[in-house]
Design a protein that fits this description.
about 210 residues; mainly alpha; two-stranded antiparallel ribbon
Amino acid sequence: MNLQIFSIAVTNSSGLKIEVGMFFILILVLIFIIFLFIQKSSHKNTFFSAEVELSINLGGIGNVKLKRNADVAQIAHKAWTEFITRKAGLAFDPEHDVIIEVYNSWKELFERVRSLIKDIPASRVKNDSTQKLVSILVDSLNKGLRPHLTKWQAKFRRWYDAEIKKPENETKTPQEIQRMYPEYDALVQDLILINQQIISYTNELKRLSA
């Protein structure tokens, strides 16, 4: 290997000839790699030391401050994934969405988030910010989704199951049948409100993990 860093010589035409050795190139590459490593480490330290203020309307949770750490970022990412991949994380469309399917999605979400919380080792919940995040996840279910489901789901399902079996409704779409529900407007108004809060909440979770 040529260990010469670089050389400068005067050519016959009075110009300068600069030759760079392989050793010099290796030094530059090494410096660049070190620079990238420092930048990445600095970003990582900043990410995990940053305090984040969340604004969560779902369940009346309100504003909450917590610091990112590895557990917070990982848990938030898993929870965000559960919300964003289901109907619960998408805007409700009264013209096309089927309420029963939305409630089924919420039920699955309940089970998945509770499973996520249950699987967190107790030793990892000692950190104050991690405790806060777990409390937020619990409240999002019990104070956010549960009140609507308690008020509307059972009686709507019972009514809907009876209606779809009636001969006069055989040619109707699920959307047409659900609009016949006596309290349809009130149900959908509440459903849309909770749905909007869920979407906002999902965006806040993403901020913790992004």
